[in-house]
């Protein structure tokens, strides 16, 4: 039996969106926390990168009309690759390792999240 609460996505969109790799390493956790803070502070609407990876065409076409900031944690660029494969061409991009943070060696602290947030918040 289908759960009525799960029958549609609750994410929604706005003109300014953020997607995060939200990977399993320290940097993925940081990108997720930064995306959530951007959402909570009303800077950008956080949305689900998995929707793009799953090929949900209605959402993908809607997302393509928005100003998107993609946050990736490391040089594997999973989020960027997902967007590129789905045909996204005009989006903003930030990779956390470009700020000097190292995968597997970066503590997830308030100071680190603040550092990344301050860089992401001004990208338009």
Q: Mind explaining what this structure looks like?
A:
This protein has one domain (about 15-120). It has a 4-stranded parallel sheet, sandwiched between helices. It starts with 15 loop residues before the first strand and ends with a helix. The chain has 5 helices and 4 strands; from the N terminus they run βαβααβαβα. It is globular. α4 links the parallel β3 (about 65-70) and β4. With about 120 residues, the chain is α/β, with parallel strands linked by helices.
Spatial arrangement of strands, main beta sheet:
2-1-3-4
Largest sheet: 4 strands, parallel
Q: Which stretches are poorly predicted, pLDDT < 50 over at least 5 residues?
A: 1-10
Mean pLDDT: 91
- The outline comes out as globular
User: How helical, in percent, are the residues?
Assistant: 25-40%
What is the percentage of strand-forming residues?
5-15%
Order of helices and strands: EHEHHEHEH
Distance between the termini: 43 Å
Radius of gyration computed on alpha carbons? 14 Å
Determine the number of helices (DSSP H or I, runs of at least 4 residues): 5
Structural class: alpha/beta
In total, the number of strands is 4
